[in-house]
Design goal:
By secondary structure, the protein is an alpha+beta fold. Helix content is 48%, strand content 20%. The chain contains 10 helices and 11 strands. The strands form 2 sheets. The protein has an 8-stranded mixed beta sheet. The termini are close together.
């Protein structure tokens, strides 16, 4: 099926949905919500197609005017200018429509749970994990997103063994979802007297924050253990059984939460993280099935995949999935991630477009 036929099918389906929604039995059948959701999703696509078709028709009319020997000189000059402008704009309009045709990721509009863990490299890995956490925090601030720290396990020298945050705002997951994987750093640690470059790593996981309607968790599938919190947090944290460990028995996923002094608050935070992990677990299984039929993908989201290297001596950051190197490491660590993220989104769109065209 060629692209023109696909576009005609989209418009026909949109018209059909419009008729079904006003049918007398639509509301009573319980289909109205499903129909209106599909209709709303197709509306911007149809608007884009109609705008493209209008411009194509304008270009055809102008071409006819230019081919007509009776068109006077002044009119011909104006028509030629307009025709050239239209001809230049049509490829971009076509690309926008094609992007709109890409099947939407239902999770793109969701908020995200961001988890960062120190990997290989000891204290230097923990310091790098803290640097990454601050990088995403600054990026969230720059985009006007809310960044809520949910859990933090610190080392004695300012590093993080593990840090979890909730990030909420517009297009959060859509922009952060390609950050999952192993981030590697090459730099000279402050404790290194010989000036040798050390390599260490941290793991980043970005998961869509699931609502209760997205993922159902039965009480019988949970084991909840209460224990005394340890580590920094104030005297009252260390003298009350406020820490929570939640085990999801069917999957073996375990979440611990002890940052709050209230057992109830720790459980609520723990359930948010558990829900996100279970939702992501389901998404990963579906993605694995889809990947078997896909020709290419920017990143699998696999946490063991090495995705990016931050080379401090050379001041550069390299994304290995798309062979992108940016010589602006300081600015990236300060939260200027848009260039790297936009490149990943564009590459993903291009690979998915090649599969539907």
């Amino acid at each position: 099926m060629n692209m023109d036929e696909k576009l005609r099918q989209v418009i026909a389906r949109h018209d059909e949905l419009g008729e079904l929604m006003v049918a007398p039995d639509a509301a009573s059948s319980g289909d109205f919500v499903r129909l209106s959701k599909e209709y709303s999703a197709l509306t911007p696509v149809v608007e884009g197609i109609r705008r493209l078709n209008e411009k194509k028709q304008e270009a055809a009319d102008l071409a006819g005017m230019l081919a007509d020997p009776e068109t006077d000189a002044d009119m011909r000059e104006m028509a030629e200018i307009e025709f050239l402008e239209l001809k230049e704009s049509l490829p971009e309009l076509e690309r926008r429509v094609q992007v709109l045709l890409i099947p939407k990721d239902d999770a793109d509009e969701k908020n995200a749970i961001l988890e960062i863990r120190a990997g290989t490299g000891g204290d230097e890995a923990a310091l790098f994990a803290a640097d990454l956490f601050r990088m995403y925090q600054r990026y969230a601030e720059a985009r006007g997103w809310k960044f809520e720290i949910m859990h933090m396990s610190e080392t004695g020298i300012g590093g993080f063994k593990e840090a979890i945050a909730s990030v909420s705002g517009r297009d959060v997951f859509a922009r952060l979802k390609f950050e999952s994987g192993v981030h590697r750093v090459q730099r000279i640690p402050t404790t290194e007297s010989g000036g040798r470059i050390h390599t260490s790593a941290a793991t980043v996981a970005v998961m869509p924050e699931a609502e209760e309607v997205d993922i159902q968790i039965a009480d019988k599938d949970l084991r909840i253990d209460v224990f005394r919190a340890s580590g920094p947090g104030g005297q009252s944290v260390n003298t009350t059984d406020s820490a929570i460990r939640i085990t999801h028995l069917p999957t073996g996923i375990v979440v611990s939460q002890q940052d709050e002094k209230s057992q109830h608050k720790n459980k609520a935070k723990g359930m948010r993280v558990l829900r996100a992990r279970l939702y992501e677990h389901e998404r990963q299984q579906l993605d694995a099935e889809r990947a078997a039929t896909r020709k290419s993908q920017v990143g699998s989201g696999d946490r063991s995949e090495r995705i990016r290297t931050y080379n401090f001596p050379q001041g550069r950051v390299t994304d290995h999935r798309i062979n992108l190197t940016l010589h602006k490491l300081d600015r990236i660590m300060d939260g200027e991630l848009d260039e790297a993220i936009d490149a990943l989104i564009s590459e993903d769109q291009a690979s998915r477009l090649s599969e539907i065209s």
